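Sample A.
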Amino acid sequence: MGEKSEVLLKIFGIFDITGEVIVMFVLIATVALISLIVTHNLKERPGKFQNVMEYVVEYLDGFFADILGKEKSRKYIKYLSTFFVFIILSNYSGLLPVVGVTPYLKAPTASLSVGIALGGIAFVFLQIAGLRAGVKNYFKRFVSPVFFMLPLLILDEFIKPASLALRLFGNIFGEETVTDELYNILPIGAPIVMMGLSVLFCAIQAVVFTMLVSIYLDEATEIEELPEKSRKKKIKENKKQVLK
């Protein structure tokens, strides 16, 4: 688990294909295949597999609705759920026997580059969502409550994705390193206990990452109180966007 990733292939002499990239491709292909199977055979009286998938979707919808409200949740659930599913599967991939014991296959979220990429995607997503919610309010929040807060609030905007990346990488890499060291010291017993805790730990990290992104999203898309007529118009526009 603690071994350095090896470059398996270079594309155009620039892009490195490492163990993390291989596992990412496998995870993405698996999720895409499952999604196609579920959506292609939707039934009014679902079977066990469809029931499980519907339960997952309903759970995520309720989770994000508690933070963002129902309208915002329905609008952004596809983006937020993608973060959650990718991170939790990446975390759990490190528990597989074939992943982590060799530098050719590694859990994606145990790599700092993957954490930085996720933080960067979250940053771009938050800026676009904020601008779409209202250009005036987007810029106004950088000078509220007073103008001289501008440098600090701009800095805070860049610290958010950095903290997301470092928190995810540090926790997952640390957990893998501890498990590896315990295996070297006490090969029987201790690693099994640690891996049992990792099942819960990996899920918590996925929840924390998406919860923080949801909170930042709620702040970025917050709009000030509007006159009654404008407020009703805004609600109608939001409902149309949700239906789309």
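Sample B, a different protein:
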Amino acid sequence: MKTITFIAALFLTGVTFAQNTFGDIIGTFTSPDKKEGIFGAYAVTTRGEQVFKAVTDEDGRFRISAIPAGSYRVYFIFEGDTTYSKQLVEVAPDGFGDNGLVAQAKSTEIPEIVISEPIYRLTKGVAPEIKLTKKDIVHMPAKFNAKQLVASMTSEVKLTDDGQLIFRGARKGDVINYIDGVKMTDVQNVPSAALGYVMVYSGAIPAKYGDTTGGVVVMETLSYFDLLREYNNRP
């Protein structure tokens, strides 16, 4: 009975945290001349067999909500025509990727797929955090040591000589580390090639991450769909 209760508790904890790894995609869909927003168009993106969509408002703006963190491409359906966004949008947990302004393609246009650098912003009411994506991690000198990587992300975190992290003057090692929703009491090394995101909260920590006077490090590894998109978008 104790074993069943323990497994159920782990499952519920995983489900609760998984809900916190979602983000949004925002943007604006306009007429071909970019002078007017298009009302009532479907903004759609997919992840495997899952479909996420939203409807543009009177200004052409949209927000696709509750999307698992990862890389996405958005397309728009309006009056039987489909317009593809030119950029790949990166959605981070608890934040959103900005797809920017997309003009409706003319019926004779063939969409040109261009991967550009995404823009990251935080939604209102979300505590500020320092964030690294896979593209950033690849170029970090400290990418092979998780604690050194965290310490290099912000001046509010120091790494002591004995390998302990100190957040804003808190006690040594007073840190919570989440890896794909699993809570750890210390920052664990994860192969840098497997990391999709690393986020550091050094202050104003959301209650959902637990009780700590130090900081929180959230790591999310690449999913199958992230690796598949990377493979499909290779030169």
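Observation for Sample B: The two ends are 54 Å apart (CA to CA).
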